[in-house]
Amino acid sequence: NKAANIVYLIGFDAGFDPQQVSVVTVDITTGEVFHPNSTFTLPAQEYFYAAYTFMPASGKIMVMGVNGSNSSYFTGTDKTYILTPQITIGTREIAKNLYDITCYPNPAIDELNLKFNSKNAEKLSIDILDLTGQLVQQETKFTTKGIQTCSLNTGNLPNGYYLIRIVLAENTYTKSFTIAR
Fold first, then answer.
1. Rounded CA gap, 83 and 92, in Å?
2. Most buried residue among 51, 53, 121, 161 by CB atoms closer than 10 A?
3. What does the longest C-alpha to C-alpha distance in the chain come to?
4. Is the pLDDT of residue 134 over 60?
């Protein structure tokens, strides 16, 4: 969804037949991820090895070519589904603005800076995750009250897209950044 800067991913919950799916929403501006609590259960012997198309006019996703076999990608059916993503990204925006967290430069080369307004002397936990959700770097720092800037060494990270998870005053914030050399 280019207009909203959102990516939709089809998520599969545990289970084989019937298969359960949901639409996971990622805000690529902030890196915030929303996974809905509910799933859609496909009828027995139907599998989502299909093509997906976002339809901007309706804000829905069309799924074409649902498979009739779990053992072959070439047993498509004549079924099409229309999915409506649940979007609740931004519900914690008020809390985010309390700290005014920014990351720069983006894209980063060998260093990423965090700037924020700390309300008190607090513990700051920073996790950097790759796109698979694997933790690739972790740091803990301590802040003082007021405007803070801290630098993170990113020179050991390969080029790519990353999420930074920041825990400050028991609140978790997620931002995205890119390494490009």
1. 25
2. 161
3. 61
4. yes
DSSP the chain: -TTTTEEEEEEE-S-SSS-EEEEEEEETTT--EE--S--EEPPTT-B--SEEEEETTTTEEEEE--BS-SS-TT-B-S-EEEE-----TTTTHHHHHHHT-EEESSSBSSEEEEEEEESSS-EEEEEEE-TT--EEEEEEEE--SEEEEEEEE-TTSPSEEEEEEEEETTEEEEEEEEE--
Instruction: Reply yes or no on whether the pLDDT at 92 is more than 70.
Output: no
Tokens of 2: 């280019």
| Integer Cα distance of 99 and 142 in angstroms | 15
For residue 123, pLDDT over 80 is answered with yes
Whether the upstream peptide bond of residue 105 has omega within 30° of 0, thus cis, is yes
For the record, the structure tokens of 136 come out as: 């690739």
